[in-house]
Design a protein that fits this description.
The chain is of the alpha+beta class and 517 residues long. Helix content is 26%, strand content 22%. It has nine helices and 20 strands. α4 links the parallel β6 and β7. The longest helix is centred in the middle third of the chain and has 30 residues. The two termini are 34 Å apart.
């Protein structure tokens, strides 16, 4: 999904600012993109101490940054995606704002970045900043470090201690992304492969500690029980992800990081040369993201027919290396009666399974206040309602591909529509005339041949007939219920009070789980 291949889970855009004041500062600056009369092209001008080349370079870098923000805006608003509907037009500025958040927090500020050696975990991909085909079920936190050397100039090992709490979330991982590349995820630590502070398998609610360094350094420290191998990269992101299934009960755990040898040691003096490089790194973010996301829609539509679900496939180097994904896109135009049903088998192959709505900028919808995601798994303790066992609608295609007879399966039938279909498993299209559904499997414990490709775990999209298919008036709920009944998966109608209650759970989840300070 990238070019160099830039992924929809593009790591470069993953570390995002939460503070409104800094956002306002950069956003206000972006309004003056261009060349102010009192600042020369080489960065000299007001506030410029004469003859200091590092200061000039810093000012020049910031002018270049503002120009690239403007270039990104022009690329976005001239794209076909911008003109799809009002939701996509607004979504363009949501995404540009997310890039501003990201660059401000991790590049423009004077602390917390890889070049300064004092990293800390900050939130990204949260209810207000949604980028890279993000998952509403996951609380993302990340930090950027410089892992380009195994040893510093004095011969000391370059390593980081990371620690925190496992909490009770359904899934937890530490993973890495080289932010200079578009190839996605790197080495990953899964919770099921970790141990607690006593050296026994990590359980829910227990504290943990991990050490991150290049392999050569890790090999010298067998006492470091949880080891995360770091690729050599000047700007490497370490990301912590807690994925939640039951939003009313599960909580993310805390996470912290320090570079070994810095505890109790003052940070380095502020350096204009370092700040200039940070600004140039922020400019590179816009240079790569500006052309990619307007073309994202073509990468989906060009590879996949409308209302067709892909088989599950490993994410591989395009995201979390241990995750599986599936995709489907829809085109409902302005028809509020349009609907499609996704059938997703539940064969206990993963601890967590989820389905989320994104626009064609790769951003999730307002999941804090809309029914735009759904999860299942964890032995039935998640959001979606499982149907009665049903036969696979694509059984013959599975057999033709050399697969097995599936028999009756447990499965989840999820309705995608603009109007409420009156059943529990619903994903609201949230004013998107066209959009993307992304599915995820995490903590998969089945062999790849049982998960990926055309087999009994194949997702299937089933269109719901429109009103024109009947000789008498029908409602969307009647047509959905009728289609589910024909598939052997009758659903129990839900009430408006049920919808209101589930929205309250979402809103409370945001209040409780996104407090970083």
């Amino acid at each position: 999904m990238s070019q160099q291949n830039i992924s929809p889970r593009r790591p470069l855009v993953r570390y995002v600012l939460q503070t409104a004041g800094a956002v306002t500062l950069v956003a206000a600056a972006a309004l003056t993109v261009g060349q102010p009369d009192d600042v020369a092209a080489d960065g000299s001008g007001i506030g410029q101490p004469g003859g200091d080349e590092d200061i000039k370079a810093m000012n020049k870098a910031f002018q270049d940054y503002l120009k690239e923000v403007k270039n990104t805006q022009e690329q976005f608003i001239s794209s076909d995606t911008f003109r799809l509907d009002d939701a996509h037009a607004v979504g363009a500025y949501d995404l540009i704002s997310a890039f501003l958040h990201s660059s401000n927090r991790n590049n423009m500020s004077s602390s917390g970045t890889g070049l300064r050696g004092r990293p800390r975990f900050v939130g990204f991909d949260d209810p207000d900043t949604r980028i890279g085909v993000d998952n509403p079920d996951t609380q993302y936190m990340g930090t950027v470090i410089d892992s380009s050397q195994c040893y510093d100039a004095d011969g000391n090992e370059v390593a980081w201690r990371i620690w925190g709490n496992r909490s009770n979330s359904v899934d937890f991982i530490l993973t890495t992304f080289d932010t200079s590349e578009g190839t996605g995820g790197g080495p990953t630590l899964e919770d099921e492969d970790m141990v607690n502070l006593d050296g026994t398998p990590l359980q829910l609610g227990e504290d943990w500690e991990a050490y991150a360094a290049c392999q050569e350094v890790l090999d010298k420290h067998p006492e470091w029980l949880n080891q995360l191998t770091l690729p050599q990269a000047r700007l490497l992101q370490i990301a912590r992800r807690h994925t939640h299934c039951d939003w009313s009960e599960e909580v993310p755990g805390e996470v912290h990081i320090e570079r070994l040898g810095t505890e109790g040691v003052p940070s380095m003096p502020l350096d204009p040369a370092i700040q200039a490089q940070q600004i140039r790194d922020a400019t590179d973010l816009f240079r790569t993201q500006g052309p990619f996301w307007p073309a994202f829609v073509d990468s989906i539509k060009g590879a996949l027919p409308v209302a067709t679900a892909t088989p599950w496939q490993p994410t591989g180097g395009l995201g979390i290396t241990t995750q599986y994904n599936m995709f489907m896109w829809f085109d409902h135009g302005d028809d509020p009666e349009a609907a499609v049903i996704l059938r997703l088998p539940d064969t206990d192959i993963a601890k967590y399974m989820g389905l989320q709505l994104s626009n064609f900028w790769g951003s999730s919808a307002d999941w804090a206040n809309r029914h735009v995601s759904l999860n299942w798994g964890n032995e039935g303790n998640c959001q979606a309602e499982q149907s009665a066992p049903t036969f696979h609608p694509a059984q013959q295609a599975i057999i033709d591909a050399g697969g097995d007879f599936c028999g009756k399966q447990d499965a989840y039938f999820v309705v995608i529509s603009a109007a409420d279909p009156g059943v529990k498993n619903w994903i609201d299209t949230a004013e998107l005339s066209e959009g993307l559904l992304a599915g995820r499997l995490q903590s998969v414990d089945a062999p790849i041949q049982e998960v990926a490709g055309i087999n009994c775990n194949l997702p299937v999209a089933i269109p719901v007939p429109g009103p024109e298919a009947f000789d008498f008036p029908t409602t969307l709920q009647q047509r959905v219920m009728g289609t589910l009944g024909q598939l052997g998966a009758p659903a129990i109608p839900v009430t408006p009070q049920f919808r209101e209650d589930t929205l309250k759970v979402r809103q409370n989840f945001v209040r409780d789980k996104y407090i970083f300070w």
